[in-house]
Inverse folding.
């Protein structure tokens, strides 16, 4: 090879003005055949292909009345066709935006494809948003119809309709509770499909539909994804067919995902991760997506389905560990001892075995015994026995949590992604897994570190624009297609990307020590008792933090120890709970003291918040990322008290939003605890520099 | 056979019912009716005879005086098995479930009266008995879906929080496919969110299945929102009867609840 691909590409780019050609060049020349791209460059085309190629293979499953129902790709095509033509009869046409609101239901996924086949744009919305929040997105995107799951969402649409009159029709999946609604433009899913079936009897309707799909191209808008956004109002990310199909194809190739995989769709449909994983990649590879019976049954359902590929934010993995640790507390002594003994065995040998390193025979045998007694049953509980590839994404996962799963023999990997990139930017290749890095750029993705330390990327999967927001588009995406990620990072000696933190979050303390809040928070969150943590320390003399206790873990502890409590607030303020958390914070401080860069960022004072951080109050996003500015605003008094060393307790009054949108007030006194700071171990001099 | 009862017709009519335990008169000459398809609330201070009234309706207590007309058939008193087989189901003030059994088994128990294959068939779970069991299971699954308790199927009810136990109890009653559902304080001891869920389920049962509901409840806000008509009892006597608006403006009711200056 005379030149590497990168070099050729660079030259090519310098010859042209825009980066766009570079992408195309890359695409045709290197790793994707021209055929596969030009013939199926949209999802409706992929559906037509799958209905032929995988006609009898399962495409979708849903548990209904306790029994798994299956639709093959041929069935799905039939459902989508009736629905699309029915929607057309309702007046939905090319260019219209249609909101999709609800839990993961097969019909809602079909709606996406049906809309795309008409040239309309699906807009999935976080189903647990309150009407006001949803209204903003719907009005901003100028949606003309909505396909929703149930009565709850229909009610929201009617409420939104009072202030935004663009919604002409609402279609619902589950008719329960809706039989008495007398509203114009309200249709059941069945009715619309029936309209489609009637229309299909007319000459030429189907041919027109197919011709419409044929006319579609990679340039068409595929979907609007509103980012939950840790700052400001949500922004509508416009993704084209080319973006999404490319991303799906690249990701499937990376891990050799084919039609034999099976996944379970349980993450919010509005999250880019779910859209790529449960829709785009499934259509591209032809694999089966299963929808759980209800959000509460996911783990049991996953166990029955035996998924081979999983994708989840760290929160999900954290919760599973918490649940396990809580349940183990109730187990007999023998079981407890066995559990902890073999976890230690796994900790020392599990990852090595997974990575194919050499391990002494004795350890290997011990690990096999552990697999039989502990790891196997545990994986079965989690529904992860058959997992071939698992990803954690969305935000940084605590290294301890990550290692825990890997040591059990689950091939959990990290990836780095963003909505603006259609998720995938870097992935960890098999056998090159490091807990503190997020892997190498995916084939076709370029990543560079800007002078400011910010990670920037460019790929054919990069979004077109923010809808109706040219200013933000300009701020984020450069003329030649590079996107500012907003994260600070660096490449390590293996060529792996390492994300330090949100670029704007990483701060410096007054003595010059680096202060990476997320890093500290993740260490805290490894303890089952701690659900959420928010650390402060930028431009301060020392580090302090807020803590949210985990009601499941601490609640279970309270039950075992006969501690009675009436509310989260009461439990959080309990002296024994404070004592437990104090031990956890102390352990984190000990760990920090051993790490040269952050030894100075040990937690000096902490408090346990009197209420849980909640997306309804805007304190965390719907995908559970901390919104620091909102927290600074709402809890200013507490932060002030944390940094005022004379204060040991502070009164606070906070407004909170209930699930149905009503507001209430919680108030109380919050106690502040002082912690011991350990002298840094090891190379102190370097750390001080 | 009695004629078909249409929504709005009287389903159950109580006339001059009196019930006493030794010298204690729990109910004194009370009469009211329940129309098909309505939500009928029975309210009153503690010891007013509300639960006794439900017990009379489903035949657990036998009144000394008065008549009960159910589906056009006039009786002096009800027998519990007649009540159950004629479509009267109930839940209890203090949850009365089989604590060691799973949610699913508890709800299946609600289908007992509708199972016809004999013990021998059932023992071997074969042929017709198996087909029957599957048919019943499907009905039960509909109820589970309706009350959103799919995640609890295999959980022993003793391990469930109180609010969910109440829901399982409602599920068991619904599994009987009742015509008249008696709910004894369905929301006692629940927090606001649980109360709202339960209210929603009660209204949906009423709307979707057309089930007639008689409920005892202390939360006046809930009663006013849910019920079509309210009967007020005090010291075993009927104090008022009418729509929520009528009842809440009735002076005798206000006096009974708030007390009156003598």
């Amino acid at each position: 090879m005379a030149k590497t691909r990168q070099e050729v590409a660079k030259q090519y780019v310098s010859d042209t003005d825009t980066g766009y050609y570079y992408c195309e060049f890359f695409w045709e020349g290197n790793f994707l055949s021209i055929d596969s791209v030009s013939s199926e460059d949209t999802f409706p085309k992929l559906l037509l292909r799958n209905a032929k190629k995988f006609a009898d293979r399962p495409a979708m499953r849903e548990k209904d009345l306790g029994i798994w129902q299956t639709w093959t790709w041929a069935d799905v095509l039939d459902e989508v066709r009736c629905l699309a033509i029915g929607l057309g009869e309702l007046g939905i046409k090319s260019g219209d935006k249609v909101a999709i609101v609800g839990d993961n239901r097969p019909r809602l996924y079909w709606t996406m494809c049906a809309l795309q086949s008409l040239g309309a744009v699906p807009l999935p919305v976080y189903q647990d948003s309150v009407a006001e929040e949803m209204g903003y997105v719907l009005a901003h995107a100028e949606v003309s119809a909505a396909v929703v799951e149930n009565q709850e969402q229909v009610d929201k649409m009617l409420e939104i309709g009072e202030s935004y009159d663009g919604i002409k029709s609402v279609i619902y999946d589950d008719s329960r509770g809706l039989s008495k609604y007398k509203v114009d433009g309200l249709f059941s899913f069945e009715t619309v499909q029936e309209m489609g079936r009637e229309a299909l009897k007319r000459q030429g309707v189907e041919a027109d539909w197919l011709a419409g799909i044929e006319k579609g191209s990679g340039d068409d808008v595929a979907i609007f994804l509103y980012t939950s956004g840790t700052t400001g109002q949500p922004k509508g990310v416009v993704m084209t067919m080319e973006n999404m199909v490319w991303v799906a194809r690249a990701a499937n190739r990376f891990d050799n995902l084919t039609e034999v995989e099976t996944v379970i769709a349980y993450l919010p449909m509005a999250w880019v991760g779910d859209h790529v994983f449960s829709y785009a990649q499934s259509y591209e590879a032809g694999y089966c997506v299963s929808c759980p019976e209800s959000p509460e049954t996911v783990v049991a359902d996953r166990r029955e389905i035996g998924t081979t590929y999983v994708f989840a934010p760290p929160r999900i993995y954290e919760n599973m560990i918490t649940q396990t640790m809580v349940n183990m507390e109730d187990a007999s002594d023998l079981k407890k001892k066995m559990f902890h003994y073999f976890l230690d065995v796994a900790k020392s040998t599990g990852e090595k075995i997974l990575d194919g390193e050499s391990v002494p025979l004795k350890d290997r045998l011990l690990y096999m015994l552990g697999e039989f007694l502990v790891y196997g049953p545990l994986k079965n509980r989690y529904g992860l026995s058959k997992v071939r590839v698992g990803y954690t994404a969305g935000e940084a996962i605590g290294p301890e949590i990550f290692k825990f799963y890997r040591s059990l023999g689950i091939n959990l990997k990290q990836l780095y992604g963003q909505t603006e990139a259609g998720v995938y930017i870097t992935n960890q290749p098999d056998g090159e897994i490091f807990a503190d890095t997020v892997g190498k750029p995916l084939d076709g993705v370029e990543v560079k570190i800007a002078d400011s330390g910010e990670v920037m990327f460019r790929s054919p999967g990069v979004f077109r624009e923010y809808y109706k927001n040219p200013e933000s588009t300009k701020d984020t995406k450069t003329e030649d297609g590079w996107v500012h990620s907003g994260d600070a990072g660096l490449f390590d000696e293996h060529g792996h990307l390492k994300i330090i933190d949100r670029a704007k979050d990483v701060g410096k303390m007054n003595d010059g020590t680096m202060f990476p809040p997320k890093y500290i928070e993740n260490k805290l969150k490894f303890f089952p008792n701690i659900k959420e943590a928010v650390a402060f320390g930028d431009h301060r003399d020392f580090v302090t933090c807020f803590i949210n206790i985990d009601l499941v873990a601490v609640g279970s502890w309270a039950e075992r120890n006969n501690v009675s409590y009436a509310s989260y607030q009461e439990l959080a303020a309990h002296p024994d709970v404070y004592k437990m958390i104090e031990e956890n914070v102390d352990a984190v401080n000990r760990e920090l003291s051993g790490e040269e860069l952050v030894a100075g960022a040990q937690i000096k004072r902490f408090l346990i918040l009197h209420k849980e951080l909640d997306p309804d109050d805007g304190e965390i996003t719907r995908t559970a990322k901390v919104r620091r500015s909102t927290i600074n605003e709402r809890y200013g008094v507490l932060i002030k008290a944390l940094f005022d060393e004379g204060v040991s307790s502070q009164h606070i009054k906070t407004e909170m939003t209930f699930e149905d949108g009503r507001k209430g007030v919680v108030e109380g006194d919050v106690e502040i605890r002082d912690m011991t700071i350990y002298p840094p171990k090891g190379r102190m001099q370097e750390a001080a520099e | 056979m009695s004629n078909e009862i249409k929504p709005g017709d009287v389903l159950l009519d109580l006339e001059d019912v009196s019930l006493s335990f030794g010298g204690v008169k729990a109910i004194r000459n009370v009469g009211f009716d329940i129309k098909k398809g309505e939500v009928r609330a029975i309210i009153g201070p503690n010891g007013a005879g509300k639960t006794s009234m439900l017990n009379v309706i489903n035949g657990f207590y036998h009144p000394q005086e008065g008549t009960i007309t159910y589906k056009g058939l006039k009786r002096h008193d009800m027998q519990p098995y007649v009540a159950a087989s004629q479509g009267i189901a109930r839940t209890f003030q203090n949850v009365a479930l089989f604590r060691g059994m799973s949610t699913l088994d508890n709800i299946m128990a609600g289908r007992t009266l509708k199972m016809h294959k004999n013990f021998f068939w059932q023992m071997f779970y074969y042929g017709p008995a198996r087909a029957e069991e599957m048919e019943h299971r499907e009905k039960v699954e509909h109820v589970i879906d309706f009350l959103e308790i799919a995640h609890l199927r295999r959980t022993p009810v003793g391990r469930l929080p109180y609010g969910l136990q109440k829901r399982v109890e409602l599920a068991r009653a619904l599994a009987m496919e009742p015509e008249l559902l008696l709910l004894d304080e369905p929301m006692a001891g629940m927090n606001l969110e649980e109360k709202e869920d339960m209210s929603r389920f009660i209204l949906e049962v009423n709307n979707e299945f057309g089930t007639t509901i008689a409920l005892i409840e202390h939360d006046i806000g809930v009663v006013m929102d849910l019920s079509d008509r309210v009967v007020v009892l005090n010291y075993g006597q009927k104090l008022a009867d009418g729509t929520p608006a009528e009842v809440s403006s009735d002076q005798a009711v206000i006096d009974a609840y708030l007390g009156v200056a003598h």
